[in-house]
Amino acid sequence: MAEHENKQNKVTLKAFMNGDLLMHEWVRKQYKLCILIAALIFVYILAGFFAQRQHHHLTEVKKVLQDKHFEQMTIEAELTERTRQSTISRQLREQGSTLIENRKPIIYIR
Question: What's this model's pTM, rounded to 2 decimal places?
């Protein structure tokens, strides 16, 4: 019996590579737990890949959103410049229009 215990307690690289380690009594009793742990590790790795892909996608979307925001600000600045009263008056003068600018303040009727 002592020889049998010594044989089971001795774990070597050769025993591990041959699969003798899987025949130990503890592993045979706990095979369901080992399968559960392996499944949880697999799920954990998949979740990491999914999170990495989501982060990459989110970074790309943020970049596109920032580009669109800057484009919107540029267009808004151009529109503001084009619709100023001084700019419109100058353009009318350059085109030779006979319109005269109103110098009286606007009166609001309530």
Answer: 0.53
Which domain range does residue 27 map to?
A: 2-95
Whether the pLDDT of residue 52 is over 90: the answer is yes
Q: Given this model, what pLDDT does residue 35 score? A: 92
* 109 DSSP 8-state letter: -
Tokens of 48: 């990491």
Annotate 32-54 with b (16+ C-beta within 10 A) or e (fewer). eeeeeeeeeeeeeeeeeeeeeee
Nearest partner of 85 among 106, 74, 101, judged by Cα = 101
* Pairwise CA distance, residues 74 & 51, whole Å: 35
The answer to whether position 103 is within a domain reads no
